[in-house]
Amino acid sequence: MARKKKPGVLRCPTCGALVRIEDEDFPFCTDRCRKIDLGKWAMGAYKISSPVLDPEVLEDLGGAGRPRGSSGSGGGADAN
Ligand SMILES: [Zn+2]
């Protein structure tokens, strides 16, 4: 229909405060919020890789001890 107006402000992903695009800490309202957000991502990455290394989890997958469906592009068709 009509052209969209570009919003001059967005919300800070961390605290939800309004942030202007021209702000130097955009899209965060402050440098502090930026670091908090980065910290969340770092912690999330650790949480993702942690359970995979857990032997109990691998055992539960089939006892073979190797994860299946992990972007397998190693060898060809191997039997046994
Ligand atoms: Zn904020």
Please characterize this protein's 3D structure.
It is a single chain. The protein is mostly helical. It has a domain at 10-60: 2-Layer Sandwich (Erythroid Transcription Factor GATA-1, Chain A), CATH 3.30.50. The chain contains two helices and two strands. It has a two-stranded antiparallel ribbon. The mean pLDDT is 76.
Topology:
Elements: E1 9-11, E2 18-20, H1 31-52, H2 55-60
Antiparallel strand pairs: 1-2
The structure holds zinc ion.
Short synopsis of the structure:
This protein is mostly helical and 80 residues long.
* The CATH topology of the domain at 10-60: Erythroid Transcription Factor GATA-1, Chain A
Biggest β-sheet strands, sense, barrel: 2 strands, antiparallel
- Proper CATH architecture of the domain at 10-60: 2-Layer Sandwich
Q: Strand-and-helix sequence, N→C? A: EEHH
Q: Which geometry do the CA atoms define? A: elongated
Mean pLDDT: 76
Low-confidence stretches: none
Radius of gyration of CA atoms, rounded to a whole number = 22 Å
Could you give the distance between the termini? 60 Å
Fraction of residues in H or I helices: 25-40%
Text of the CATH class of the domain at 10-60: Alpha Beta
Strands ordered across the widest β-sheet: 1-2
Output the structural class.
Answer: mainly alpha
Key descriptive features of the protein:
binds zinc ion, mainly alpha, 8% strand, Erythroid Transcription Factor GATA-1, Chain A, two-stranded antiparallel ribbon, elongated, 80 residues
